[in-house]
């Protein structure tokens, strides 16, 4: 689309990049990669959704050569209550935290690597590192789904169509579909956006026509800010039953997690990135 860059409006893209530049100057860092996360990155945002900007940065070499422990994140603790022109939320990881989380097969990092809504840079600095562990990712998706389900869906009324509850259904749908793809095809590159995930299941006819229709209705209902194409109690019951059934599967032991890769693989990449960025 002519008015967007990487699926982001030009105005937001330009504004966010200026704020990222300001963060680089303020904190004396280099931002390697920045993406849009949250409901926008997952493809089911609505008019009230904010912009969740997640970035990965590196500090000057001398800041890593100290006995003083440094914070490895930049978040609300550092940024305080800043006033932006748009509804923005910034949060970043230092390269050391990023590499440590990659070693642990962190699912959030995996998703950010695959994101297409990119503000700055790319994830090439993580190329060539060990593959993410399938069982670790499956366990993480199962745990996230269980947490969301128990907090916002379990024992709730079937006529509760509040945005928070409907959004949680969208979360659970996305997380379980990703789990199934990883489990079924041993593929750690399941699409991030919900529509692409659903397209895969439509092509493979793995869910059934009614359940897919209920999923689409739920997602479209949240996108409309819970104003159009109202969900039915039958659809809620159908989705709840599907989610609860899969929770019994995703919460079961996923097999032995592999031994974590050798630290030196990541130490070597850390030194390479330092050299490339700072010379």
Based on secondary structure, the structural category is alpha+beta
Q: What is the CATH fold-level name of the largest domain? A: Beta Polymerase, domain 2
Largest sheet: 5 strands, mixed
What is the count of β-strands? 7
Cα gyration radius (Å): 20 Å
User: What distance lies between the first and last C-alpha atoms, to the nearest angstrom?
Assistant: 38 Å
> How are the strands ordered across the major sheet?
5-6-4-3-7
Rough shape? globular
Order of H and E elements: EEHEHEEHEHHEHHHHHH
How many domains, in number, for the residues?
Answer: 2
What's the pLDDT, averaged over the residues?
92
Would you write up a description of this structure?
The protein has 279 residues and is an alpha+beta fold. It is 52% helix and 12% strand. The chain contains 11 helices and 7 strands. The strands form 2 sheets. The protein has a 5-stranded mixed beta sheet. Strands 1-2 form a two-stranded antiparallel ribbon. Helix 6 packs across helix 10 and helix 7 crosses helix 9. The model has no long low-confidence stretch (mean pLDDT 92).
What descriptive keywords fit this protein?
Beta Polymerase, domain 2; alpha+beta; 279 residues; two-stranded antiparallel sheet; globular; five-stranded mixed beta sheet
Please provide a brief summary of the model:
This protein has 279 residues and is of the alpha+beta class. Helix content is 52%, strand content 12%.
